[in-house]
Design brief:
The complex is a heterodimer.
Chain A: H1 10-23, H2 32-41, H3 49-61, E1 65-68, H4 75-87, E2 92-95, H5 102-105, E3 107-109, H6 111-117, E4 124-126, H7 128-135, E5 139-142, E6 162-166, H8 178-183, E7 185-188, H9 194-205, H10 214-230, H11 237-253, H12 261-272, H13 279-290
Parallel strand pairs in A: 1-6, 1-7, 2-5, 5-6
Antiparallel strand pairs in A: 3-4
Chain B: E1 2-3, E2 8-12, H1 13-29, H2 36-53, E3 61-65, H3 66-77, H4 81-116, E4 123-125, H5 126-132, H6 136-148, E5 151-154, E6 159-162, H7 165-177, H8 183-197, H9 200-205, H10 207-219, H11 229-241, H12 245-261, H13 271-280, H14 286-295, H15 307-316, H16 322-332, H17 339-348, H18 367-391, H19 396-419, H20 426-445, H21 453-460, H22 464-476, H23 480-507, E7 515-520, H24 522-530, E8 539-542, E9 547-553, H25 559-571, E10 578-582, E11 586-589, H26 591-595, H27 597-606, H28 615-624, E12 629-634, H29 646-655, E13 659-664, H30 670-679, E14 682-685, H31 689-702
Parallel strand pairs in B: 9-10, 9-12, 12-13, 13-14
Antiparallel strand pairs in B: 1-2, 2-3, 4-6, 5-6, 7-8, 10-11
Classes of the chains: A alpha/beta, B alpha/beta.
Chain lengths: 292, 703
């Protein structure tokens, strides 16, 4: 094991002890086609070659990547997948919030140990970003707009790469500065076309997809698309998958071989109804397609 | 860059930078903030993307779908949701406009070929072509194609050759870059560039063709600033020979304008042709003439024979520098001058120029006046000997000076004997004034009398000329006390000049903007609340921490600009963090020098404006300075020290700068200037010293 080698530096040693087992190293995948295939097989994600090529070329240029798009379009999962495959180690995810600052990301001093030993390397607690730098793993800064972090992290090793995700439509979040945006390569995520979304559902559901008829899946996609145009909460491909999963689950519980309209109807509201303002709209649209 | 039929783009790597720069300029104009680093990233990301997707061909070209090209550029250049639409529109316009323009250009070229009944790759005898182009429409088509370089003349074989289709296509591609819609205008622009590059010999060989072309260029209202002065003169002369008065006048006017702005250009020109043209078209004002004579005093030879022209020469004397004045005065006195003319000459010249009058003819003067002229000439000569004695460190000159001074004393003794009875004439009074002034100069040079120094300032006022005069005396003087006095005096003048510069800057309308931050100054806000102010909340303002680096070229050609630039820099010393002057080497001027007028004057007086220029070294000095910086460079951009690559150094310097501003005189290295522009620098061509001072003061005021 690599972490068993002699590491003289105290902080490096701590990082290896704490984080090395978590990252589960494996052979990195560095070709575009390889990443696309592995994303499909391992992570059950359908990602275009163009997108992966753009991300990889940004990595090679030494620029971090910013994924921007509405919720549920797979930004976090795709980012995590690409980073993991590229580095050959599980990527670190930093879920951001208002008070997520440098101390929680890079590291800080343990108060009790600092009192005992002073502010030395012994009392320093390394956090994920520093760990990723030392371990040469990727970092996904999720929902960057929610944090007070506005730094751009430059790639040091080949494996250490940074992807930020952000949802520009989220009005509760802060604005990204010009200086920050100037340094990143921005990739926009949108809702996939119907065929791709159907493919995603098929991939995610696996064997269970056989329980859904062609008619039902096209109705599901019609409902989702209509809601995306009209509702305040716009369901993403993740919601489509969740809805179909719940419908097949219900069908199984009810002892059916195929999920019928009732199963979809019952499962719909728990997945699609996220805002009280949308209640009437969701009911009317779902009833239009699934009410017998 | 060209589009193929399958919605693909063929990108040539060399053209990519030009394409992106013009696209980014257009995007900037529409409100998207883009820096040079983003252009650089776009190129790198695109290159990596193409190699990953296998779009790179062997010969350094990429072929990729337009959509993918757009997506890659969008990811780097449009970072906000509302910028995406602007980007898409601009990009589509850009690509479509270019391909539409190329199609139109090719179509026009082909219609011209059809008009002439010739094809790609044809070889037509010159005589046959002459017969063909008797028809005006065909002549027009022929001229356009020839200007574009599609039809080329092979005089040795006696034929006109039409280029192959592929070569014509590549010419059409280049034509798109000029952004003109009309093929004739493009042809004229290409021709203008050709005239700029071609040799004077070629111009002479193809007189007719070039003259016809320049006529078209003038009619299409293209800017003739691109044309070198020597070629303007030649073309104007040919036009005059061929009786094309309108063209000759227009070109001479441009020439006169150019001379008044950059008189140094006159050195390279044929003085006889120049003067005859200026006379012919009535542009021989004393201002223009002084510019001509300052740098080419031999031009006076063709002027002094005529009485009227001689008047103009005499009137322009005060504007001419000393060395040229000496030549002109010596030439003038070879003719039989009237008394009035002699009076005007003597009152118009620098007293030091009187030294050439020692053996001149002045028959029309009375004996007293003749004595005084001789005495003044002797005194001026004695001053020159003193100067040389100091500059060359040769004691022999002191002896020569003293012997000349003895002659002067003798002449003045004679004069005092004869002049007692007669009242003094106007000429005598003028000569006596000049002698007084010469005595003052001599006194300060020989360091016997220092109290006379303020007199110089009184006579010449607080001007740049006075500063130069003081510098000359400073160089000649040996006495340290006099030197100190000179420095003190010069520093007073510098202070006055600085006040003048400040007033220039105040005239500018550029305003500073403060950037408000979100943090509140609690103390002030509470105070305002208690006082019921209308807007009680006070925010912290953020001050930009940007360094300003001023690079000044102090090679021989840049003397005037450099002196002014250093003085302006001292006026705005607060805004400037680094002043670097460069020749073959680089000198870093400390800020303390800039702030203290005496040390600034000392620095200026000891600065030598000569030698070669090494821009690359100066730029590498800039890129070594870390942090956000604005770089202002004053130079003619001519790298005269060989073995350095200024462009690569410029690339490094510009990459690390917030803004890169270049002020350059009209005569400069245009290729380098254009490359700097492409890299994102702002290059301003200054028209003269006044313009330069105003522009520089404006820049510093803005910072």
């Amino acid at each position: 094991m690599q972490h068993k080698r002699e590491v003289e530096d105290v902080i490096e040693k701590k990082v290896y002890e704490t984080y090395y087992t978590i990252v589960e190293p494996f052979k990195p995948v560095r070709s575009v086609k390889g990443i696309v295939e592995q994303l499909r097989e391992k992570f059950k994600l359908i990602v275009s070659e163009k997108l992966v090529a753009l991300v990889v070329s940004a990595f090679l240029t030494g620029r971090p990547v910013l994924f921007e798009g509405p919720p549920g379009t797979g930004k976090t999962e795709v980012g995590y997948g690409i980073l993991t495959l590229w580095a050959g180690k599980k990527a670190f995810i930093l879920p951001c919030s208002e008070n997520y600052d440098e101390y929680r990301v890079i590291g800080d001093f343990h108060p009790l140990m600092a009192m005992k030993m002073g502010f030395t390397e012994e009392s320093f607690v390394p956090r994920p970003l520093l760990a990723a730098l030392i371990l040469d793993a990727g970092v996904l800064v999720d929902e960057i707009r929610r944090s007070s972090l506005r730094r751009v992290f430059k790639a040091k090793g080949e494996g250490f790469q940074v992807i930020f995700t952000s949802n520009p439509e989220d009005i509760a979040q802060g604005e990204l500065s010009d200086a920050f945006l100037r340094r990143v390569v921005r990739i926009k995520f949108t809702y996939p076309p119907e065929e791709v979304e159907k493919e995603i559902a098929k991939l995610r559901l696996g064997e269970d997809f056989k329980m859904i008829t062609e008619d039902s899946i096209s109705k599901v996609l019609a409902v989702v698309n209509e809601l995306r145009n009209k509702a305040l909460h716009k369901p993403g491909p993740a919601d489509t998958v969740a809805w179909t999963q719940m419908a097949t689950g219900l069908a199984k519980l009810r002892g059916k071989k195929k999920a019928d309209l009732k199963d979809f109807y019952d499962a719909a509201f728990s997945v699609l109804l996220k805002r009280s303002e949308d209640e009437d709209l969701v009911y009317s649209i779902v009833e239009k397609y699934f009410k017998r | 860059m060209k589009a193929t039929s399958r919605n693909e783009l063929v990108i040539i790597e060399e053209e990519l930078l030009n394409f992106l720069t013009s696209l980014c300029n257009e995007l900037r104009g529409k409100g998207i903030p883009l820096s040079i680093s983003e252009i650089e990233s776009a190129i790198r990301v695109l290159r990596n993307y193409c190699s990953l997707r296998g779009y790179i061909r062997e010969n350094g070209t990429y072929t990729l779908p337009v959509i993918e090209f757009k997506e890659v550029l969008k990811s780097v250049l449009a970072k906000r949701a509302h910028f995406e639409k602007i980007f898409e529109e601009t990009f589509n316009n850009f690509i479509l406009r270019k391909s539409a323009l190329k199609y139109k250009i090719m179509k026009d070229i082909e219609s011209h070929l059809r008009e002439l009944k010739i094809h790609y790759g044809d070889k037509i005898p010159i005589s046959k072509m002459k017969y063909l182009i008797r028809n005006p429409n065909r002549k027009q088509a022929f001229c356009t194609l020839r200007k574009l370089g599609i039809i080329r003349k092979d005089s040795r074989r006696g034929i006109y050759e039409v280029l192959s289709r592929d070569k014509v296509r590549s010419i059409a591609l280049k034509c798109i870059e000029y952004n003109f819609k009309d093929l004739n205008k493009i042809a004229n622009y290409v021709m203008l560039k050709n005239i700029q590059k071609c040799s004077l010999r070629a111009l002479k060989d193809e007189k007719e063709f070039y003259l016809d072309s320049i006529e078209d260029i003038i009619q299409s209202k293209l800017n003739l600033e691109l044309l070198p002065t020597a070629k303007l003169l030649e073309l104007s002369y040919y036009a005059s020979e061929k009786n094309k008065r309108y063209i000759s006048k227009y070109l001479t006017q441009t020439l006169a304008h150019r001379i008044s702005e950059t008189p140094m250009e006159v050195r390279k020109l044929d003085e006889n042709k120049l003067v005859s043209l200026l006379k012919e078209h009535g542009f021989l004002s004393s201002r223009i003439l002084s510019s001509v004579l300052n740098y080419n005093p031999r031009a006076v030879d063709s002027l002094i024979k005529d009485h009227k022209d001689r008047d103009v020469v005499i009137n322009s004397l005060p504007l001419i520098k000393l060395e040229s004045q000496r030549y002109i005065v010596s030439k003038l006195f070879r003719f039989k001058l009237s008394k009035d003319e002699i009076l005007r000459i003597i009152s118009n010249i620098n007293p030091r120029a009187l030294s050439v009058l020692e053996k001149a003819k002045y028959v029309s003067l009375n004996p007293n006046e003749q004595l005084l002229i001789k005495a003044a000439a002797k005194l001026a000569k004695a001053f020159e000997y003193y100067r040389r004695a100091f500059l060359e460190d040769n004691v022999g000159y002191y002896d020569m000076a003293n012997s000349v001074l003895e002659e002067y004393d003798e002449l003045m003794r004679q004069y005092s004997l004869t002049s007692k009875q007669v009242s003094k004439s106007k000429l005598e009074k003028t000569l006596l004034n000049k002698i007084d002034l010469l005595n003052t100069l001599l006194a300060s040079a020989s360091a016997k009398e220092t109290s006379a120094l303020p007199l110089i300032v009184k006579i010449y006022g607080a001007s740049f000329y006075t500063l130069r005069l003081l510098k000359e005396i400073y160089e000649t003087t040996i006495d340290t006390r006099t030197k100190r006095n000179l420095l003190h005096l010069a520093s007073i003048i510098v202070q006055r000049l600085k006040t003048r510069y400040r007033s220039y800057a105040l005239l500018s309308k550029r305003k500073k903007t403060k950037r408000k931050t979100t943090s509140i100054i609690i103390r002030d806000s509470i105070y305002n609340v208690l006082r019921f102010e209308e807007q009680p909340v006070v925010y912290h303002t953020r001050k930009k921490d940007i360094k300003v680096v001023l690079l000044v070229d102090v090679s021989g050609s840049m003397r005037e600009f450099a002196e002014h630039a250093i003085l302006i820099a001292s006026t705005f010393a607060k805004s400037i963090s680094d002043l670097i002057v460069f020749r073959e080497n680089v000198i870093h001027v400390p800020r303390s020098t800039l702030r203290n007028p005496v040390s600034l004057v000392e620095f200026l007086f000891n600065l030598k404006f000569e030698g070669w220029t090494n821009i690359a070294l100066a730029l590498s000095e800039v890129s070594r300075r870390r942090g956000r910086k604005i770089v202002v460079m004053i130079s003619d951009l001519k790298q005269t020290v060989k073995g350095y690559d200024p462009l690569s150094e410029a690339r490094k310097a510009i990459r690390g700068s917030v803004e890169f501003i270049v002020l350059t005189p009209p005569i400069h290295d245009e290729m380098f200037a254009n490359s700097l522009k492409t890299l994102g620098a702002k290059v301003y061509v200054v028209r003269g010293i006044d313009d330069f001072v105003k522009k520089l003061a404006y820049i510093f005021r803005g910072i």
